[in-house]
């Protein structure tokens, strides 16, 4: 029997190709955290974000143009909603699965589809409403993300957007 012996160059090329493939798979990830001081109770704010998303287009129409329930109910854990919004002057769409924690007054949005999911593999935004006084609270926003590839821009504009959304909703909650 004759055996073909692989050259060292062929092995080196294979190893190099595997290294490059591994580097492409390792995309950047990160977490942004911020706190937004709000007027009104944590309960009022949590209720608005938990079960009153249909009010968002009227309350913050410059950000949110529509919100529709794709699966579930407005206030159900695991509900899937579709948001039409404007980011940096451009219309975008976001489909998310909702997770609710009534004990900690936390609403979590897990990205499923939409413009942002073209750039990100992971999009998880937590809004936790923490009481600070009788008529004030903070919204602690934690935004965890992972890019699809290193060429995608950092999603800092999405963090600015959701922070602005929480702050701008404050006036509407106070009037309610």
Describe the protein in words.
The chain has about 180 residues and is α+β, with helices and mostly antiparallel strands. The chain has one domain (about 30-175): START domain (Alpha-D-Glucose-1,6-Bisphosphate, Chain A, domain 4), CATH 3.30.530. The protein has 5 helices and 7 strands, in the order H-E-H-H-E-E-E-E-H-E-E-H. The protein has helices at about 10-25, 40-50, 55-60, 115-120, 155-175; strands at about 30-40, 65-70, 80-85, 90-100, 105-115, 120-135, 135-145. It has a 7-stranded antiparallel sheet with strand order 1-7-6-5-4-3-2. A hairpin with a 4-residue loop joins strand 4 and strand 5 (about 105-115). The longest helix has 20 residues, at about 155-175. The model is unreliable at about 1-5 (pLDDT under 50).
Mean pLDDT score: 88
Q: Give the distance, in angstroms, between the N- and C-terminal Cα atoms.
A: 86 Å
Shape: globular
Q: Give the low-confidence spans.
A: 1-7
Q: How many E strands?
A: 7
Oligomer: single chain
Q: Give the neighbour order of strands across the main sheet.
A: 1-7-6-5-4-3-2
How many separate structural domains? 1
CATH class, named Alpha Beta
CATH fold field value: Alpha-D-Glucose-1,6-Bisphosphate, Chain A, domain 4
Estimate what percentage of residues fall within beta strands: 35-45%
What does the largest sheet look like? 7 strands, antiparallel
CATH-defined superfamily: START domain
């Amino acid at each position: 029997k004759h055996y073909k012996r692989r050259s060292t160059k062929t092995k080196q090329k294979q190893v190099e190709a595997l290294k490059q493939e591994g580097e492409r798979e390792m995309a950047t990830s990160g977490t942004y955290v911020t706190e937004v001081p709000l007027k009104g109770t944590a309960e009022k704010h949590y209720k608005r974000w938990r079960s009153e998303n249909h009010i968002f287009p009227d309350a913050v129409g410059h950000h949110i143009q529509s919100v529709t329930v794709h699966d579930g109910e407005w206030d159900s854990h695991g509900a899937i909603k579709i948001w039409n919004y404007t980011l940096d002057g451009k219309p975008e769409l976001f489909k998310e699965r909702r997770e609710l924690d009534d004990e900690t007054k936390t609403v979590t949005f897990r990205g499923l589809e939409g413009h942002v999911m073209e750039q990100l593999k992971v999009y998880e935004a937590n809004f936790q409403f923490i009481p600070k006084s009788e008529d004030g609270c903070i919204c602690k926003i934690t935004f965890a993300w992972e890019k699809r590839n290193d060429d995608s821009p950092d999603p800092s504009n999405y963090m600015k957007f959701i922070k602005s959304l929480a702050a701008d909703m404050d006036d509407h909650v106070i009037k309610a």
